[in-house]
Hints:
This protein is α/β, with parallel strands linked by helices and about 170 residues long. Helix content is about 35%, strand content about 20%. It has 6 helices and 7 strands. Strands 4-3-5-2-6 form a 5-stranded mixed sheet, sandwiched between helices. Strands 1-7 form a two-stranded antiparallel sheet. Helix 4 crosses helix 6 (about 145-155). The protein is elongated and about 60 Å long. The N and C termini lie far apart (about 45 Å).
Amino acid sequence: GIIEPAYWSSGPTLLAKDGVIKDWKDIAGKPVCGKQGNYYNKQVETEYDATIISFTGNTEAKQALRDGKCIAWLYDDAPIMADLASGEWEGYEMAVPVLYDNPWAAAVPLPEVDKAWGVFMSGMAYRWQASGKLVELEKKWKVKPSDWVAEQHEKAQWDTSYLQGGN
């Protein structure tokens, strides 16, 4: 079963040439490369008036972007960050914030969800958030800071003002 809290989140964003896109609304009326079958294609097409050109594979979609057939590539931010870190996408950027955050959580055997292993993993995920470990790992691995991770870290902070005592 899936344990809580989630420890990471990802979602769709755009890979585009540096400076071409500043906001999601910049894709209105323009061709955007996408991966066939992604749940967010239709939503982005409808909400931002983009024309999604679907490809069966990522390689084809990214090549179409390089060839100028699309203004951007619509895909999950985690693999886009990996592409940018590879050094093969010089002159490109992750141009806009992630849409539709999709939290990731750890799974344990179903019979263990409410037993020792599930409780341990849940506690670990909570400690990663509360301690700032995930924020540290983003910096260490040069991953673009996630608003979701920062928000979860902030939520996990305890109000200790009552411990100060006195007036």
